[in-house]
């Protein structure tokens, strides 16, 4: 039985651990916290998982909360701006695309704690310890394969930044989120749940995501601010109450249609806020330990995108599924550096589309992108296709990046609409 060590107990690490466990591998997981510490701790992320990522969980029998979490059946885009002669901020663009398969969001405190308990109950070996490079150097020779699925901390230093695939050297957004109860219904299509992304050109974005948290149904209010701009104001906030108050002040100023839904909200719990920032980065997937041992980076450890496009958990799930297939197909052959690079490139074949699209969305909107988003407001076919691109970002290659392709697609959609 092949022995595998996975460092990190997030979406990718635990999904991969549970998948390998189900295939008969001897798996050890290193986590810096117990399940109960995760469950009672601070929120760790925003997340919304689309059809493909949810399918991977379902295939492994890990969709424990599918019947409890809100079924997100649509994804909307709004663009804020001003209109001459009209006071205040207006919605210049507003539409909701219907998803081909529902999306869902589960607070990672709920999911990761539950998965960690499941891994242990199924006989997995759990080591609660904040791993350092020296720990892996000591342990690596005891395992056939060591995977690093921890996207923060000292271990990331094992993987060199790939400048050819990393156009940004600094964070492109400041991030601030709050989980809330009491958000009112959407004015448009309130009969089904939808996630919404509000674009405020030159300023940032606000995501509103229905979710399941430790206290039941909730919504995530998630600001992404251009560094140094008017949304980059959470670094000096003292306490969760002040964080929520600032969140709401910004809603009222920049997206008043969302503020109108939020006048009665309250935090889901005392640890329901988070703020920070990080640079989007792609790294060399093979890390070398001081003694010469090799480790393979997983998901955020080697490909981390800004959360603007909601791809974090989706990418983690896809990476875990891809690595699971590569490991099983390897059989009894050694997990050497060549195999590691091959396994990563197999994942990168899909991940590259996420990175390209997310990096493009971080940049100021090109004219053809503004036109495309505007056209979706009057063409449901375009809105639906754009919304479903969040599940399969490779589709954007056909019409998003080049003006000629975007114009041709909109013309085709107009002709089809009659």
Automatic annotation (TrEMBL):
A single GO molecular function term of this UniProt record: ligase activity
Q: Which residue intervals define the domain Styrene monooxygenase StyA putative substrate binding in the entry?
A: 151-261
Looking up InterPro entries in the UniProt record yields:
FAD/NAD-bd_sf (IPR036188), StyA_sbd (IPR041654)
What keywords are assigned to this protein? Ligase
Q: What is this protein called?
A: Alanine-phosphoribitol ligase
